[in-house]
Amino acid sequence: MRPQRETSEAPSIPLSFISLLDDTRALSLNSVLDPEKGLLAAAENNNTELGTDSDDRMWEGGDDPIHLRLLSQPSAEYLFEGFFKHFNPLVGLLDPQLYTFSYTRETSPLLLSTILAISARVLQPESYVAVQKHSDTLLAQVLLTCDAAIENIWAIVCVYHWKNVNDTRGYTLLGFAIRMAASAGWNKFRGGMDFACKPQVIDHPQVNLARQQRDQERLWLALGNLDRSSSLFTGRPVAMEMINKEIGARGWLSCETWAYPQGDSKVVGTFELTQISCPVLDAMTNLREAQDPSSASTSFQSFRKAMEAFNVAVTEWGQYWSSKFMELPDSEPFQSHLTLFFQDYTRLYFNSVLLHRLLFIEKSDITYSGAVEGTMQLCFSCALGVLQHMIKMGHLDILYFLWDTAHLMTGYSAMMVLKLLNQSRHQRLVSTRNAFETLTEISDLYSIAARSLHTEEEVSVLNATRKARSSNPAEVQARLFGAILARLKTNYKPATPGSNGSSLQASSGTVLTSMEGGYQGEIANIGVGDEGTSHNLFPVPMAGQAESSDLTPRRETDYVADGDFMNSMFTLAGLVSWDEPGIFIESR
């Protein structure tokens, strides 16, 4: 294992919208080592004595998944390469120049097993279960011994991102990772990046040392970003102190000698996004804590003012970073879409909070109707924007490799589209046609991806009962999109020939037209050729995969009957039912 250093810094990555009911347990080993997941049992049944140095056993195999014959070396190398080609670029976690296959295999059986399990779920499903169980066993050992090796903390961050739907350990595991990093002194940044920026040629050990130092700074920033993102979107307390702004500054990116440009840019960009959101969060907190009508009114106006500045700043952020990523070496087309995906989701979430407040106030003060209409149009545009960017990434085969929080963000956006369409007093403000076309395309893409990712066991279970809850994030979202689309078809019918071609007709007979100058969907014309070359991971077209799948396609009636499932997803996201007025169950 490489020695722990006293230098430090830095956080990374995405915005989450995770159930408060399922994922707010206390920070305790009991909650992480869930007996139902077999972690503690696996650790207890393992013949290895916890707390002993495994270096002496490494050359005999030890916990190495290859020596344990869970995988052949060619298969392991294939999966490892697949992770860095398809998964890692989405979030920019691990520096591929540092974490080579041989380096990772030598330094950390846990990180190696975690990477192989993540990749196997998509690229080699028949190996997934065995490698995943082994990874969980090693994770249990690390948590029980509080081993703060940087590779172990990276492994936890990877688990946090690519977990199954029913795995609710993410928030608690993140807390352990933060505490272990802090206990190792990573928060004591000493400005050591000056050494890493020196351009002179140095020998191999020094090169690795420079990359390792930069790697630690990136991981500390990544942990801070995840911590603050969780606080912004779920109301959980922040576990970390404010990150040294020298690390989160764009100047940190100017050090290019030992940098990982893609990963470094992602953590700095995400840090900026959390910083932009903080004043809005503070205003929301003051509004919730207002004790009397006068202070509540003052706090609300402060919140609206903060939102005005926020909307401008986030738009500028998206413009800068979407262009920045396209300038990086080996940049791929999806990077720009992913940046704008975060931009639109962040705007959607906080403007949803504002809309919830405005709808409540409008009941007693009609002068707020104009503000309601403007905010509703903005929310609708952002929600469709999130879905559109996901569709474009879907055409590049990105859906197969997304982390589960990105799926949740997409699902939240689709649910908001349905909610906005059902705000009866303001239906004329949104385009049902655009919503229908967008939801149809993203539902198709997710359905194809879900069927392609099913294991034989999942196929048999899901075909036996439609009430089964898949652990596959793509399957859950495909089911949600299908239910939303079925509800939309039930409530609205195609417009009559003489009506506006960009509208649908409500079942009551009222024609809902597109808002003038509003969001105009271009989904039908989007193709892979417009965005660049796809990964070409699957030689058979995705549509062909869907046709050859053993999973019985869901019928329209199945989705119509999915009302309870759809309502449970609304509740999970903290939203009131799709057909009820208002936005959130509880004010944010």
Automatic annotation (TrEMBL):
Recorded superkingdom: Eukaryota
GO biological process: DNA-templated transcription
Domain Xylanolytic transcriptional activator regulatory: 83-238
Pfam families: Fungal_trans
Annotated localization: Nucleus
InterPro entries in alphabetical order: prtT (IPR051089), XnlR_reg_dom (IPR007219)
Keywords from the UniProt entry: DNA-binding, Nucleus, Transcription, Transcription regulation
Cellular compartments per GO CC: nucleus
GO MF, one annotated term: zinc ion binding
Keyword Phosphoprotein assigned: no
Coiled coil spans: none
The protein's name: Xylanolytic transcriptional activator regulatory domain-containing protein
Organism: Fusarium oxysporum
